[in-house]
Each structure stands twice: as structure tokens, then as C-alpha cells.
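Practice set, problem 2.
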Amino acid sequence: MKVIVLAGITPSTFFAHVSLATALRDAGHQVMVTAAADDVVPAIAAAGLPAVPVMQPNLTREQIRAEHGLAEVPADAVEREHWAGRLFAVIETLPMDSLVEFGESWRPDVVIGGMLAYGAPLLAARLGVPYVRQAWDIHDPKLFDAGATAQLQKELADLGLAALPEPDLLVEVMPPSLREPGSKHGQMMRWIAGNSQCRLEPWMYTKGADTRVGITVGTGVADYHQYDFVQGIVKNVTTLDVEAAVAVPEEAVPTLRERLDDKNVEVGWIPLDILAPTCDVLVHQSGGSTMMTALSFGVPQVLLPDAGQFRQMDMARRLVEAGAAVMLTHEQATTEAIAEKCQQIISDPRYAAAAAGLAREIAALPLPSEVVRRIEWLVHAHN
């Protein structure tokens, strides 16, 4: 069986596909992972999977927005989700000609795409093969989908379609207790984190104090030089008599190591599946993969979502309601408030108990190897 995986336009979205793509290869199938952005190629290769560049035209995100009438970002969070669906639809289908050329020459038996990889259903329809949609996190993408459908009317009409095709198989990863009424049911799969790995040092996988707080604020540290923010979080968190482990991109490490010269602070680029199991609390900006990885290891979380991002707020709300997290919006997230929320979780064992319960739910879900059998059956039935 030959499989094309469209894993999204960032390394973080690709990581959600590693376990299933690897399981397909381990079962003897050929897998190709397409990369529509330069920085995704090294992540794919570092995970041990074949990377096929299908690069989009050399346009900046601002140019793409301007050319497609998406320059103005809506203030309303729900409208912004619809707008984001339109933007992802444009970005994900810009390399469509390259995708189709590759697909027609390699001839896959099935196409797998992430939740916002809107090129995947179009490619599968063009090639006449089954389409598998794989969830990246616990968020329902219906608002994204509505925006994408509105944006892709011409592309859909060219295929004789009025709306985005429903997947032949929907792969879900959310713990069952987090499912909301009316959400679609699909094939459940256990979340197994996929990360680019590195040469490990002992502090990365063993904590040096009774309590460890993990801190990651994504690539924003390097992109926007938010060193003061991270330094402030660490300064306040370490007053709690805990160890702080700060995961940041390589380019931010020298500056932060110099600023955070403290025996109770470790700084470096750490694969999240290595760091998370050592943490008693994880502080992060509500990214879906980060959230799912922490959940899979039973780690309670301090979430810092953007109030203008409906997706982040939705996922954060559900974890708070489940008792496995506390939340501070960007506006509320002073470094002092973050430290207070860490102390709240450390002092109250109910947070760890709730997170452990969700981890048990995840561990009980079918392994990726079992989902491979479903995909094999799907292709067999189609043929």
C-alpha cells in the first residue's frame, strides 16, 4: 500500500502524524510525507520519514492575505476562526499543482491529511483514492471547515463538488470524556507524541528537585525576543522551591542560559516527549500538540491561550472544566500570576488526579498499529 501524508505547514502539526506514519511503514507500507514549507522538511527527516518538498509559491503570509482579500483580521473570535479556515485553505492549496503532479506520478492508494490540510481531500478526490482525516488535538474544526469551504468554491466546483468531501475515515485522538455533545465520531487512536530528537543530557529526562515546572512558550521566544517574559516566569516560579525546565528553540538557548544562571533552572531545546514525563506542571501557550503530549503523560497544565483565538480558548476551557488545567489569557498572564497558578496546581492533588485520569483514557485507546489495519481494510474495500 502506498500512502501520501499531508502533514500541514508547520513542524508542530507534522509531529501529530509521526506515530501513524511510522506504524504504516512498520507494517510494510510505503509512506511519503509532503512538505509545503522549508522548515517542515528537516522535522520530517529528523523523525525518520521520507520528506517530499511540494513548495508553495514564494509569497509571504502578508502577500497571500492581501491577494485573497484576507488582509483584515476579524476582531470577533468566532469570525476569526472562519477567517483562519479561509486562510489555511489558501495556504494549503497553493502547492496543489505540485501535489497533483507528485500524486499522479507516484499513484498512492490513500491520502492522509491533518485537520487543516485542506489540500488532502482535494488531492484524494482528484486521484480517486480514499481520504483519511487525522485529528491533531481536541478541537472541533467545524468553523475552520466552513471558512475553507467558502474559500475553495472554485476548486470544489472543478471537481464537481459543492463542499469539502467527508473523509472515508476520521481518526480521533481526544480522550472520550472530553468529547462534546454532537461532535462527530470516528476511529479512535492513542496519542503518541512525535518529536525531532536530539543528543540527550541527564537533566532532560531526570528532574533535579522534588517538583519540576516545565515552561515552553513555543517559537515566539526566538521570533519576538520575549526573553523578559520567560525570565520573569522563571524568576517567580523558582520562588516556589521547585526546579524550572525551560524548553526553547536552539537560537534562544545562549541568551536565556546567560539570563537564567541559576542552579534550579535548566534551559535547552528538549523534545517534549522527553521533558513532559519529568514535570509536575507544564506551562505553555495552549498549542494542540503540546496539550495532547502533556495529557498523555498525565501532567496538569497552566494554559496561556490568546483570548482572540477561539480554538485555543475552546481547548483550554475544556481542560479546565475537566479539572486538569488552569487558564490565564494573554492579558491575565503576568509572570506573578503564572507562578501563583503553578503553586495552585502543586498544592492541590486533584489537578494531578484529573490529568492522570485523562492519561489512562488515552492509554486505553487503540494503538496506531490497530488504526493501520482499518486503513488497510478501507483501501481493500475501495479497490
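Problem 2, part (b): a different protein.
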Amino acid sequence: MQSSIAAAETVGHNEDLLKQLLLRLPAKSLTRFKCVSKLWLSLISSPKFCDSHTLRNPIPKFPSAFFLSRTATTDPQFISLLPNTNPNPSKPLDFIPDPQGLQILQSCNGLLLCCSSTDEFTIPSKFYVVNPTTSRFSEIALPPPSPKPVPTRLLSVALAFDPSKSLHYNVVCVSGSGTIPSLHLEIEIEIYSSRTRTWRAGGSTHMWFPSIGKFLPGVYCNGRIHWLSTFCWLVHYDIDEGHYGVVDEPGFSVEKECMCFGESGGRLHLIEMYGSDLNKLHVLEMGKDYSGWFVKYRVDLNLMTPDFPYTPAASCRPFFFLDAEENEEQNPVLVLRIGYKFISYDIRDKSCKTLCDLFIPLLVGWRDAYQYMETLACV
């Protein structure tokens, strides 16, 4: 017994050995272990340790929770996807001192892009890159407007972060000038790097951009930012190469509304309703060569396990889709809102489980849900 205690004390006071052990632990555990001692707090909080941990521990493919963020006037809510947990702080991002309130625009591999704004048609006044795991954030000052005779409009700000490729993130700023009603704009892109803390030109082009006078967030996937148009076509921009692309083949008929759009497992997915039954869905995936959308899963929510209470189909809405590689044990999952319940639905075995009961406005939809993954990445 004495030898075990002595060995533990030796490890606890040997900084090099302790570091090697802590690097093997998940980020969520390390945030709790900061309370063990001043040494542990100093070690786990150091940027060098955070960088080493981020490199050693790739982001999991499935999130552990998600945020609901409707507007800056309502506090984001935190909903766990893990069983037997209840980490639902009433104000999960209150460490950011913004008097106007905070709205989440995008989640990207553990980091959040947030803004200070009032509604979707108002250009945000401030932008933040946030790590909710470490409660750290950086305010991003946008580049000054281009000195052109034709006024430009801020169309989108998007976050790109892939810790398997780099410890640093990029913020992509899209501005446009031209006739907004026709959507044919002169687009200018500028890119902010957390490595240099500066902006650089990302190129310009004349193109159709999916914005009808309102500010749009983006979706990051495989080195590109993607924007989905109201008219069902997709614009994508390669950050490293500076190339633009458009997929003008709609993933669904123009009469239908996109029920969900996002990234999972390194692939883009889009969900549409098929037929007249609101409970029958297609999960579409974008081809790797951007050749167009194809149906990956056909989902009939009428086949849910019978122990789940019946709810009218009109109140069932997908929030996001979580995919998995074919050789992994994890099955693909749909996170749905049915009435005031959030449930996860296993596409393969058709089982479901309640995540939580939450009284929320019925207008809250998939655009308001942002995945959360633990990371110690520096911002």
C-alpha cells in the first residue's frame, strides 16, 4: 500500500511523466482535472499542452451534445446526446461578455463561430471564435471594406477548422457588390488565419451567390466552405486553392423545403421529404467529386419501435444527421424533434431514445442546432 502511494506521488510530481499520461485522456476529463492541484491546472491550461493534446486526440466523429441557438435575444441551450448525463447549463456561453447577447452561427470540429446580432437580416456587429470546452474565445475584427465606388455588402462569415490537418483555424469573409435581387454579384473573399492573426485576399469572381439580402452562415467540409441556396443549388469554395464551384443539380425538387443540411463523417448530407408522408425522408449525400446528390438512406419514421409514443407527423422534424463509416460499430443516427421531445433515431435498427424534454418555440429548426465536441484547441 505504501509503495502504491509513493508511486502515485512520484507520478503526480513528475511533470514530464504526468504530461504523457494526461495527453491520453479525453478533453472532457481534463477540464475537471484542473481542480486537482495548481500543477495540474498550470499544465492542462498551457497552450503547448493544449496543442499537443489536440494533435494527439482527433475530434470524434459523433458529437456528445448540441447547442440550440435561435437568436441573440435568447440564450443558447445545451443538450446532451450521451446517456445518463444532464449537463444542461442555463447559460453555457456566458463567459463571453457581449451585452447584446450571443448567437451561434456555425459549429466546426469543436469550435463555434458566434456573433452579436439581433435577427437574421441584420449584419452582425461582432464575431467570435469560441471553444466551449475550455471557455476561451477570440474576437475577430473583420477586414475594412474595399474602397470601391460600388458599396459592398457582407454576405457571409464562416469558420474552417480541421485539427487532423492543422492546429490553426481560418475565418472566411464573403462580401458582394452588385444587384442583390438578381443574385449575380461580384464576390470578394478574404481569409483570416489564426496562425498569423491577419487577413489575406482569397480571390474574387462574378457568380451567383445564394443570398437574398440576408446574412448566411456556411458549412465546412474537407477543406471547403459550402453555402446552400434557397433554390437548392450549392456553392463551394476551396480555401487552400482559392477555387469556386457550383453544383446546380438540386438535391430535391424546388417545390420542397430542405429539411436538414450539414456535414457528418467528412461528407455533406441533405435531408428531404419524399412523397406526401412527412415521416418518410431521403438522406442524400454529395458525391466526392461534386457530381451531384445521391440517395444514401431511405428513412420511414412510421417504423419506429412501438414503445415510443405516437406523435402526429406534422410535429416531427430532423435537426441533424450523424453518419458513420461502413466498418464502424456506430450506426447512422437522426436527431429529431417530435413535439417538445428531442430523440435520436437509429436508421439501421429503427430504435429510438429520448434525449430530453425541452419547452422550445415550435419555429426552432435544423438551422438552430449546432454540434458540440470536446477539444482543447487554442483559439
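Answer key, part (b): The radius of gyration is 22 Å. The mean pLDDT is 79.
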